[in-house]
Design a protein that fits this description.
The structure is a homodimer. With about 300 residues, chain A is α/β, with parallel strands linked by helices. Chain A folds into two domains: about 70 residues, Spermidine Synthase, Chain: A, domain 2 (Roll); about 220 residues, Rossmann fold (3-Layer(aba) Sandwich). In chain A, strand 7, helix 3 and strand 8 form a beta-alpha-beta unit. The radius of gyration of chain A is 20 Å and the shape is globular. Chains A and B meet through strand 1, strand 2, strand 12, helix 9 and helix 10 of A and strand 1, strand 2, strand 12, helix 9 and helix 10 of B.
Chain lengths: ~300, ~300
């Protein structure tokens, strides 16, 4: 078809195929998830990182920070549900919750579905991530409208080291250990977090892929077992994260991660989830052999 | 660098980067796993399908049939362990096992790790897949050396419909429902498989990704609940399969998939696994909310 004909005859919709642009998040430069970019909705940078929002025909809008996919409209929300409901339902009565990181606000929104929470403080380094998330992910950020949401923009390390506040649950919803969050995967920070927890408090941290980041999990686990009496790994399936399989570390001053109150507590909060349910909560702590061997 | 200099100065090893070739297995042409191809080891076709073996720096050798990745040296073997050990340990005493498909022989090899099995018949359509797998995947195909392995090359549908043999366990280790195996995802075939099972027999079938292939799972589940008194879905994490998350259907004439004998039976067979263990066996039947809703 000649250039002249094309202008008159090809409907704009059919030109989608001409915009053949792909985003690939690669591990060790040799494999990873690739997604077709329908539209590049944001491509910006903050003081700390690049921030992109792309749209894909299957996943819808996707947030990409520091070159890593963080969330998507059409995933199953496993990460946000599992990093929040597991500690909040393991704890007998969480009133004060702190999230370090979590700029897309997905964890904050899940935490505030618990009516017994009095306040959820979120300490995020990068205000631009929250701004972009509010614009593109209204469901994920809906918790910001809740008056119990206490948002602050600060370095999580400074906040933990300088604050005297105490929390029932602290969630480390950090980006990967190679970016601006690197220090927050180290033992001094884990010790400082421990000291900001009330008696019976629980720390949960995202802990990378058990398939790809064995050394990172091993190191974090080793830090935490020196500090907390109860430390467990749990996992979930998360299709947009590297390998599709993700780990969390659960470190507790006393509550066990699995107990016979989970079902009644979940019924009491009466929320709709896409991934979490009490059976999945229990099953998440049953580790495949290759994951057990990481910490053997 | 000029062409002349290049020949003298660039070590062959450093030329790896010049061979920049990628394989991408896409879902709906808009997202999927992409892997760098170090070497294209086989690129052939049989009467039924294309057969490729590629090598990747992280995964090692990978078998690709009909454009879909089937297995890799460095995955966690979850698929082969979960499609075999779950039914074999749910059954009180499996003697006769039939695998339909499974040309890479990974399932056969796992089945024959059970000393109580008298014979494992494998009915594969495509002899070339077995031939290529023997050449490139010696560990995966090591079960072929066992004298209890009974290999035949035939259409699984013909074999099931014309045989009068009966089995304790039948495993449908098929390629995707769009390829040569399409008929083997239909109800008449599932009924015929039921009729080839002994009393107390178990059928297990690979059932695609719960994230991407909800309709396929729903249809297979609907077929099987009309035929078997016990039908359950279970899942595993499988990094090289679409979405990284995979489903199986467990259909049984009487044994429940989870029972209090699993631990002692697993201890008795005394094998080393990479994914399966009795806790994972139990946990695999705890379904995330979005998977439950497929069959709600």
């Amino acid at each position: 078809m000649s250039g002249k004909d094309q202008g008159n005859q090809v409907p704009v919709k059919a030109m989608e195929d001409l915009w053949n642009v792909w985003y690939s998040e690669l591990h060790n430069h040799n494999h990873g998830l690739t997604v077709k970019i329908d539209r590049l909705l944001e491509s910006d940078e903050s003081e700390f990182q690049r921030i992109e929002v792309i749209s894909n025909p299957f996943f819808g809008k996707m947030l990409c920070l520091y070159g890593s996919l963080m969330c998507a409209d059409n995933d199953n929300n496993a990460y946000n549900e599992m990093i929040t409901h597991v500690p909040l339902l393991a704890h007998p009565d969480p009133k004060e919750v702190l999230i370090i990181g979590g700029g897309d606000c997905g964890a904050l929104t899940e935490v505030l579905k618990h009516p017994n929470v009095n306040r959820c403080t979120m300490c995020e380094l990068d205000s631009k991530v929250v701004e972009v998330s509010k614009k593109h992910f209204p469901d994920l950020t809906s918790g910001l409208k809740d008056k119990r949401a206490n948002l602050m923009f600060a370095d999580g390390k400074d906040f933990i080291e300088n604050s005297s506040e105490k929390f029932d649950i602290i969630i480390l919803d950090l980006s990967d250990p190679v970016g601006p969050a690197a220090d927050l995967f180290q033992k001094p920070f884990h010790q400082a977090v421990h000291d900001r927890l009330n008696d019976g408090g629980i720390l949960v941290a995202q802990a990378e892929s058990p398939f790809l980041n064995k050394e990172a999990i091993k190191a974090m686990h080793a830090n935490l077992v020196d500090i907390f009496p109860i430390v467990k790994i749990y996992t979930c399936f998360m299709p947009i994260y590297p390998s599709g399989y993700w780990a969390f570390l659960f470190a507790s001053k006393s509550p066990e991660p699995v107990n016979d109150k989970i079902v009644s507590r979940f019924e009491r909060i009466n929320i709709k989830t896409r991934y979490y349910n009490p059976e999945t909560h229990v099953a998440a702590f049953a580790l495949p052999q290759f994951v057990k061997e990481i910490i053997a």
